[in-house]
Structures are given as C-alpha cells and as structure tokens.
C-alpha cells in the first residue's frame, strides 16, 4: 500500500498546514513537480479548474469578452516602458538569458503578469473609437519566484489563472466594467464553490501597482487567515499613456484610452479545500465535483453481483440522463469499507450504496459527504437525487457563511486588537484613512487591511490606532 492510499493522519484543527497538504496529495488533486515551487495538476484537480473556467467563459462571453492567447516571454526592454509597475514584480521574475549556448542579448522575462505585453499589442490594434471597447480574456500561466513558503494552489512559482484586459473610450464605462467583473467573481465563487466572500476596495498601500484603484474579494479561512480570492483593477490611463493605447474619437481628436485588468487563479481551489474539507479529507461542492455521485455495489458472491448490477446500471443511466456525473466503483479486489473511505477522502458529494437487501426492499442508501448523513430512497424516487445535490450545494454555502460570521469580530480598542489578532479572524475596525496608521498596525501586529467593504464609510468612530476621527471601517487580518 502506497503512502497516498493511507487516509489523512492529522486533524484539521491540530495541524492545519499539514492537514491541507495531505488532502491535496492524498485526494489526488495535485502532486509536487521535480522543480521546487511547482506542482502538477492531476485530472481531478484540473477538472475543478475546467469547471470554473467554463462558468467564467460563459459569463464573460455574455459581456462581450472573448478569449485570446499571449506568449510567455516578455522582452526586458518592453517591461521598462512601465517601470513603476514592473518594479513591484522584479524580485519574483524568472529570466531567460540563453538560447542553447548563446546569450540572447535583451533578457526575456517569464511572464509574471501580462499588462506590458497585452498593451503593446493593443496599441497596434486600436486606431479609432470604432475599435472600442476591446475586451479580451487570457487563460494562461504566470510565473513568480515563490521559492521559500510554497503551498499547493496557494503559493507556487507557476500558477494557472485568467487575466482580463479591457480598453474603453469612456472612463465611466471602464469603471463600470471593474465592478461588473468583481460581481461575476463573487457570484461564481459563492454559487459554484460555496465560499462566502467580502467585496470592496484595497487601500492605497495594498492596491495593484499601476492601478488607480483595486477592488477585491476576500474570504476568511478556517485557520483565521484571510485569502485574496480575486481582484479587479481600474487602471485609468496609467498604462495607455506609456504604451500609447489611444484612439481617434468621433470628432477625429486623438485620446488616450481608459483601461481595466482583472483576474482569479487556482488559489480558488485551495480556498475550497480549506473551507469545506474535514478530518476525512476533501469535501467537494456538487457543482464543481468531477464525480457528483459514486455508486458502490455491496456483494459477497457472483450470484449477488448478478442481481445487483442490472439495477445498478439502470440507476446509473437514469442519473446520466439528468446530466449528473456518475461513477460506478466496480473494483472487485477492494472491500466496500475501503471504497467508502476512499471516496470520502476524495470528497465525492453523494455515495449510493446498493446490496442484495436493498434490492429486496426496492431502495438505495444515500450517504452525503458534507455532513455524513445517510438516508434511504425508493427505486421510484431516483429523480430526487438532483434536488438532493442542489440542497447539498446550498447547505455548504450556508454552513460556510455561519463559520465566516463566527470568525468576524467588531473591535474598537487597539490593545484588544493586538491580543486577539494572533488567534486569527476578520477584524472590523475604524480607520482614519492614513497610510501611517496602516503601516504601524502591520508592523506591530502583522495584520493588513484586506478589504475596505463597499458602503463601509464611517465617520462615527475613532481610528483604532491614532484615535482620530474614522473615515472607513476596513477589515484587518493576517493573510496568506
């Protein structure tokens, strides 16, 4: 028996980091690559990413956003056009310096992000107001040198993501795009992954380098740390001017365009693992589960098997006709108990158990993964399984919302803030809006302003650090 066949050996509460790594590896979502900081996605892990990608593509397409492709190599001379932006990535950049044995001259960066490359192309493609808006999304990888504190899906040197880049003739139209994309992100994460998020803006200190402002969605993880789930940036004309992304307006006057960029990564999969998993392993929301229902036959003889399988196949066909993703575990060499544990480790939302006694009773046994509940339904009630999967999806979100609320604290005294921040959580605290206070809080507690929620403007309190009049009530937390 290999190590990956052994179940989870630590509890989620006792050693969260080790628990998380074991779930990723033993549920066969990913594995470590031979190069430090890189991982290999296995089919189940990639299937979850494909599910998210398909949902985003459908929503993007309705907004007039189409997919394109960008190469991974970016000339250093091109990056120099927007030095302030690229300086933020410099310590993390991988460089290509040779072609075979020959030096190539101008170094090539392995894409940390694609603004400079995309906007160089946009400046060629856009001439007139008739070419706008231009909305393109790119599914690709990005590379950033995360060598020390790596963790699968959360912090790796190469990661899968999508990055959208739009160009507009009108400022207000671009700003509307920023918010609409953030709303797509929020709805998808909550509806598909059953993870609640808080949306709002980043502080000036924490915004994306090169943006006028950054909007974000943040979630709190079970260990009390915050995780940035996605961002949408209003770039203004900060890139269109150096990259000459401009157009002739209806009066034939040349104007610089207004731009946005936005993205999510496979970090979403890491969040899903952390939020829903338990001491048995992975717990998958039905909408993204590669297998939604697994059928486990229970028999001790060929005669019993011959009785069970005709009905089992009939049930499988019924479910597949409803577009439910079904798998029959017909491995003869394994016991039913082993199979139950195996599928629980892999997080399959619903298990069907069927044996000779069930055939006699004209029923099947259903085992729900997320709460371990077992129920029996008749052969004539198979259509209920679609509804049960929908209920599981909704229940998982509601449970996650309750846990997030329990992990969110309103706090007004800095001494209390410092004493409690080590235990983790979202801290709602008044803030005067000054970067100096934000930096001091970070220096003294390790907590950032993760998000300034929309509608959190508040002048009724006193800044938690300097005690001056507050302007907003951001969420402070330590993060991944």
The CATH architecture of the largest domain is 2-Layer Sandwich
CATH class of the largest domain: Alpha Beta
Provide the structure class.
Answer: alpha+beta
CATH topology of the largest domain: BirA Bifunctional Protein, domain 2
**Any idea how many domains?**
3
Number of beta strands: 23
Q: Roughly how much helix do the residues carry, as a percent range?
A: 25-40%
Distance between the termini: 34 Å
Count helical runs. Answer: 13
Biggest sheet, open or closed, and with what strands and sense? 11 strands, mixed
Regions with little confidence, pLDDT below 50 for 5+ residues: none
Strand content: 25-35%
Could you give me the name of the CATH homologous superfamily of the largest domain?
Bira Bifunctional Protein, Domain 2
What is the approximate shape?
Answer: globular
The whole-number mean of residue pLDDT values reads 95
Radius of gyration, rounded? 25 Å
Order of strands in the sheet with the most strands? 3-7-8-14-11-10-9-22-23-21-20
């Amino acid at each position: 028996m290999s190590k990956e066949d052994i179940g989870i050996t630590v509890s989620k509460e006792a050693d969260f980091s080790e628990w998380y790594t074991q779930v990723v590896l033993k549920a066969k979502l990913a594995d470590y690559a031979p190069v430090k900081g890189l991982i290999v996605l296995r089919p189940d892990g990639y299937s979850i990413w494909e599910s998210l990608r398909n949902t985003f593509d459908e929503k993007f397409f309705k907004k007039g956003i189409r997919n394109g492709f960008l190469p991974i190599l970016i000339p250093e001379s091109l990056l120099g056009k927007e030095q302030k932006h690229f300086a933020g990535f410099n310590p993390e950049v991988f460089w290509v310096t040779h072609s075979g044995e020959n030096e190539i001259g101008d170094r090539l960066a392995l894409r940390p992000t694609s603004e400079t490359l995309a906007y160089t192309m946009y400046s060629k493609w856009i001439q007139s107001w008739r070419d706008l808006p231009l909305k393109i999304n790119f599914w690709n990888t990005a590379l950033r040198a995360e060598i020390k504190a790596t963790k699968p899906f959360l912090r790796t040197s190469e990661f899968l993501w999508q990055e959208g880049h739009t160009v507009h003739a009108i400022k207000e139209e671009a700003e509307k795009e920023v918010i609409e994309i953030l709303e797509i992100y929020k709805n998808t994460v909550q509806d598909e992954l059953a993870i609640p998020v808080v949306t709002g803006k980043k502080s000036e200190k924490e915004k994306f380098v090169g943006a006028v402002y950054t909007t974000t969605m943040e979630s709190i993880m079970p260990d009390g740390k915050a995780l940035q789930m996605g961002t949408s940036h209003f770039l203004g004309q900060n890139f269109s001017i150096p990259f000459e992304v401009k157009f002739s307006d209806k009066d034939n006057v040349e104007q610089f365009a207004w731009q946005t960029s936005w993205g999510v990564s496979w970090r979403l999969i890491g969040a899903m693992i952390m939020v829903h998993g338990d001491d048995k392993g992975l717990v998958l929301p039905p909408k993204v589960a590669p297998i939604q229902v697994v059928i486990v036959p229970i028999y001790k003889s060929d005669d019993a098997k011959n009785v069970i399988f005709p009905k089992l196949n009939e049930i499988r066909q019924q479910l597949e006709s409803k577009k439910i993703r079904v798998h029959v575990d017909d491995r003869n060499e394994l016991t039913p108990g082993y199979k139950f544990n195996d599928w629980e480790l892999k997080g399959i939302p619903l298990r069907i158990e069927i044996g000779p006694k069930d055939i006699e009773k004209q029923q099947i046994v259903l085992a729900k993964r997320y709460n371990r509940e077992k129920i029996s339904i008749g052969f004539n009630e198979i259509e209920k399984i679609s509804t049960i999967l929908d209920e599981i999806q909704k229940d998982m979100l509601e449970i996650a919302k309750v846990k997030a609320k329990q992990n969110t604290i309103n706090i007004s005294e800095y001494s209390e803030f410092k004493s409690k921040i080590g235990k983790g959580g979202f801290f709602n605290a008044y803030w005067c809006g000054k970067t100096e206070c934000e930096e001091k809080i970070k220096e003294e507690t390790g907590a950032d302003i993760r998000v300034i929620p929309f509608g959190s403007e508040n002048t009724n309190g006193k800044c938690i650090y300097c005690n001056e009049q507050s302007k907003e009530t951001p969420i402070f937390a330590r993060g991944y």
